[in-house]
Amino acid sequence: QVCAQLCRRPCYCPWVPPRCPRGSPLVLDGCGCCKICARRLGEPCDFLHVCDQSQGLVCDYSTAPAGTGGTCNFEDDEEGCEVNGRVYRDGEVFQPSCKLQCHCLDGGFTCIPLCQEDVRLPTSDCPYPRRVEIPGKCCPEWICEGRDQHLLRDARAVSPVLPYPCHEWGTEWSACSATCGVGFATRVSNQNRYCRLETQRRLCTAGPCPALPAAFPA
Fold first, then answer.
1. What is the arrangement of strands in the sheet containing 100-105, beginning at the earlier edge strand?
2. What is the largest CA-CA distance in the chain?
3. Distance of CA 4 to the CA centre of its chain
4. CA distances for 139 relative to 72, 98, 180, 186, 191, angstroms
5. Could you give phi then psi for residue 26, rounded to 5 degrees?
6. How far does the chain reach from its first CA to its final CA, in angstroms?
7. 3-state secondary structure at position 200
8. Right CATH number for 169-207 from 3.90.78.10, 3.40.50.150, 3.30.200.20, 2.20.100.10?
9. Which CATH number is associated with domain 1-76?
10. Which Gene Ontology terms of cellular component type are present (predicted)?
11. Which CATH number does 81-113 carry?
């Protein structure tokens, strides 16, 4: 098959197509002659080295001097985000991993964790909780160790007097859970006999509650 090529120079394609970085597909160059790696967001481009159209990118010459190449950008100056070699459009919500959900906005992105970061305190039915990674599951989970197994490990690591100095650490007490009357405040601290982080609670009073109107008896 023979076709006309309106190119500024002859086409000489390598026998082996180039190996492209992650997120850059293999496409035809601007002459429709050779296979090249598509340019990504922010990378230089020209009539031959084309941008990744599957990501909505075009070669932007608006900020380039006359006669030089441009920069790959979104059409109509639309901003986006590039994460791990992939481009996301402005306003798009995506998950770079099963533990994070991110939002692309104004050229940057913010992420929130999808796994709970709670602290489990010892209880009578689970005196020694421990968080572990479970095969086949994304988020770590709490498990309850047997008392004998925990005592054996403690016998090796913890003596009645700690073999290392305990650098006390703790967060500030949270605001009272009640807006009036009695509530509770929480903090995370290691101020205990084993120098381990735990969630601590204490009662607090946010002032007396206002009296209800006579028309609305308690």
1. 93-97, 100-105, 108-113
2. 95
3. 49
4. 37, 8, 37, 25, 28
5. -90, 120
6. 90
7. strand
8. 2.20.100.10
9. 4.10.40.20
10. extracellular matrix; extracellular space
11. 2.10.70
For the chain, the C-alpha Rg in angstroms (whole number) is: 31
| DSSP 8-state code for residue 91 | T
Question: Which distant-in-sequence residues (6+ apart) come within 8 Å of 155 by Cβ?
Answer: none
DSSP string, 102-119: EEEETTEEEEEESS----
Return the SS3 of 168: coil
**What 3-state class would DSSP assign to 151?**
helix
In this predicted structure, the answer to whether residue 152 has a pLDDT above a threshold of 50 is: no
Q: Can you give 4-70 as a three-state secondary structure string?
A: CCCCCCCCCCCCCCCCCCCCCCEEECCCCCCEEECECCCCEECCCCCECHHHCEEEECCCCCCCCCE
The whole model's pTM is what? 0.36
pLDDT tens per residue, range 37-76: 999 988 899 888 999 988 888 888 877 777 778 888 877 6
Q: Is 150 left (phi over 0), alpha (psi -120 to 50) or beta?
A: alpha
Residue 93 has pLDDT above 70, yes or no: yes
Decide whether 1-76 matches 81-113 in CATH topology: no
- What is the domain partition of the chain in residue ranges? 1-76, 81-113, 119-145, 169-207
